[in-house]
Amino acid sequence: MSRIQATLAALAAKNRKGLIPFITAGDPAPELTVSLMHALVEGGADIIELGVPFSDPMADGPVIQRASERALANGVGLRQVLQFVKEFRAKDNATPVVLMGYANPIEHMGMAGFIEAAKEVGVDGVLVVDYPPEECEEFAASLKAQGLDTIFLLAPTSTEERIAQVGRIASGYVYYVSLKGVTGSGALDLGAVAEKIPQIKRHVSVPVGVGFGIRDAATAKAIASVSDAVVIGSRIIQELENVPREHAVGAVRNFIGGIRQALDGQ
After folding, report:
1. What is the pLDDT of residue 182?
2. 93-111 as b/e, with b when 16 or more CB fall inside 10 Å?
3. Which of these, 77, 122, 185, 247, could form a disulfide with 89 (CB 3.0-4.6 Å)?
4. CB 102 within 8 A of CB 128
5. Phi-psi bin for 15: left (phi > 0), alpha (psi -120 to 50), beta?
6. Alpha-carbon 251 to chain mean position
7. 186-205: per-residue pLDDT in tens?
């Protein structure tokens, strides 16, 4: 059982919901990334999604696009992201880390080299936005052979066929994008999410996390009522944009702490 699977199984056994925050590696500054990761855990994160900066993040809205641009301007690429995970693991060998990004940096490094490096530094899962399931079965099998999970996105527009394809090869969890469009856009329709989750679960045996559009403790709690985990990203990036750099770590810890309390019914 992978670290992601064990974490989510332990939460389910306690009837608790997973909290999966996202930050972009290298934003707002490379020297803050590892401290921010630890702050997320201290605030109550169960799994961390760490964004790999990319010049054309087509699925991301303007907030995460800005974060990616800042990180690239700070000289952060895939190799630096892997180094951040290695540094994080020096103090935390329990919290799963998922790298979230796009195919180009992985293919530039070489798929086999990337998987070997990811395994070595302690990455637990990989979500590649532009790898559809029908085109990455070999990649998913190679990750699985090293004990890493392949996370896939599903959307309101996903067909039964696509959901079934994902269900055959996904591991760890699937990430249901609750809105049409890019990250950070629109308003959540809880009823629509509640209708889609059972359809997904008919084909997918792993837990379902829901993200896009979760802005605060109230929306996080509402989404948690119909899902296994809550994914929150753009709102954290905005928190980082709105505070002085020296207050970034504390602000993120406090924000996630409020979400954790809401999920736990406090």
Report:
1. 46
2. eebbbbbbbbbebbeebee
3. 122
4. yes
5. left
6. 19
7. 566 788 899 999 999 999 99
Q: Are 146 and 121 in contact (CB under 8 A)?
A: no
Inter-helix orientation angle 137-145/111-121, to 10°:
30
- 115-119, 212-216, 246-250, 260-264: range with lowest mean pLDDT: 212-216
Spatial contact of 129 and 101, defined as CB atoms under 8 Å apart: yes
**pTM tops 0.85:** yes
Q: Is residue 244 exposed (0-12), middle (13-18) or buried (19+ Cβ within 10 Å)?
A: exposed
CB neighbour list of residue 27: distance below 8 Å, 6 or more residues apart = 33, 53, 67, 68, 70, 71, 74, 237, 240
In three-state form (DSSP H/G/I as H, E/B as E, the rest C), the secondary structure along 122-165 is CCCEEEECCCCHHHCHHHHHHHHHCCCEEEEEECCCCCHHHHHH
Q: In angstroms, rounded to a whole number, what is the distance separating the alpha carbons of residues 57 and 52?
A: 10
Measured in residues, the chain has a length of: 266
Residue 211 three-state SS: strand
Is the model's pLDDT at 181 over the cut of 60? no
Tokens of 29: 């500054």
Question: Which CATH superfamily does the domain covering 3-263 fall into?
Answer: Aldolase class I (3.20.20.70)
Q: In the chain, what are the domain boundaries?
A: 3-263
What are 107-155's pLDDT values in tens digits? Answer: 999 999 999 999 999 999 999 999 989 889 999 999 999 999 999 999 9
